[in-house]
Amino acid sequence: MSEGHRAAYVAFDRFPSAKGSAVHIRHMAAELFERHGGGLLCVLGGGDLPAYQREGDVEIVRFTDVVPNLLDRAQAFTAWVAEQLAPHRDTLELCHVRDPWSALPVTGPMVYEANGLPSVELPYAWPMVAPSTLDKIRELEQDCLRRAAAVVVPSSVIGKAVIDRGAAPDRVHLIPNGADPVPASLPRPEAAPGRYLIYVGALQPWQGVDVLLRAFARLADLTDLHLVVCSSVSPNRARPLRRLAERLGLGDRVRWQYTLPHEQVAAWLAHAELSVAPLTAGPRNLEQGCNPIKVWESMAAGTPVVASDLPVIREVLGDDGRFVPPDRPAELARAIRVMLEYPDVTHEFAGRARRRVLTWSDVRHRLAAVYDQVESR
Amino acid sequence: MTPCTVTTGFFTLGKCGVMAVAGCPACGRALCANHVTEGGLCPECAAARNQVGHPAAAAAYRRRAHRHRTAQEYSDAGWYVGFDSYDRAAFDPGAGADQDYLDDGADALVDS
Ligand SMILES: [Zn+2]
Ligand SMILES: [Zn+2]
């Protein structure tokens, strides 16, 4: 047995989970561990997840303390990560992190993967947070981003945001998301309605699922059309949206699926008429950018996409989808109607989009190139 | 046969399922030969008692930890001292935008 790990991957995120972030962690960590003969994965636990696992040369440790206040929890996590990394201090060559809470205790070479910025995202879930508090969080981010040997971003929108926060431009690397091609033969899910639109993802306000529900209410004349919401989060968090669907009289035309395993989502996507990414135009999506894995996965499944016209989605979809102004249910409904009426044109889009998708192995190659650069310094 | 009930896997988790040869004296779960740690505990119970990981690294760490605790190198190094009780109050469980968003914790923050 060797002295200690040479690499660590740290994320203030539950892993594994049904969310897109977990797929991302899976592939990025795999690349890190493969080239370092294993490593240490520090993530959040909870539920049935074991606090400790050893899988070959990989050790997985999960933070399981129950700390009700989020900032206290982040602080406790940071201290816990420091403790986890300490025994490997002499051997660690590289730490890969996803957030400031994970980056703070890292002392050696660090790759910071910025998929989101807490100073932008936190006010959505925590509306009482004061601007002065956000400034302090922004300072933490700046400190971590400046120290990073490399910063990996999934879109140039967030690339700009990290450079604004002090990351050296020549250390910022764009690595888009990946999605593995979906085989055409994937069987139709048994519970699938005949013809359906699909939304895949989480349900925070910035996702715009309410806009989609309102748009769908305007398509009541298409009586054979359903909407499937594949939520990556639990039924509890869908309650406000389900209430909205009821008020709109959508009834069982909307089907709700929760925390489906990733491989099942692909089948739901593949058999949908259209995939909708109705993101809103708030600062979260405009300034920080986001990580529209759902768009990549729709493209990989060959499913036509209709999405809000935001730079971050244009960057992914190019001209191979249909764009509508964000937050406008009537326009979204009209676009859906047109796409359903001209399936040939729509599928031509989808075919082109499919060919543009990076596979996860492409993504891993790009990450490997970043590691090479960091390690040759 | 009693199957080993240790959770295994990286992205897709499942139970080990190999024939158990012992039980963990601390938590009682059934363990296969592969999942019995040196002290006889299951991996999780062993980890909770600091009995896993690389022995050399762990020993070196204990030596360093002693030295560093006095040097404050591993105390939280002041990372969060800038936050006062006013900053923290905004993140109390009751202060969230919608309780429905909080039921599965902090990992609801940065996702797609
Ligand atoms: Zn045990
Ligand atoms: Zn076993």
TrEMBL record, chain A:
Origin superkingdom: Bacteria
Pfam families referenced in this protein's UniProt entry, alphabetically: Glyco_trans_1_4, Glyco_transf_4
UniProt-recorded Gene Ontology molecular function terms: glycosyltransferase activity
Span of the signal peptide: none
Protein name per its UniProtKB record: Glycosyl transferase family 1
Protein species of origin: Actinoplanes cyaneus
Keywords: Glycosyltransferase, Transferase
InterPro entries: Glyco_trans_4-like_N
Record domain Glycosyltransferase subfamily 4-like N-terminal: where: 20-181
Automatic annotation (TrEMBL), chain B:
Domain of life the protein comes from: Bacteria
Protein name (Swiss-Prot/TrEMBL): Uncharacterized protein
Organism: Actinoplanes cyaneus
Upper classification of the organism: Bacteria, Bacillati, Actinomycetota, Actinomycetes, Micromonosporales
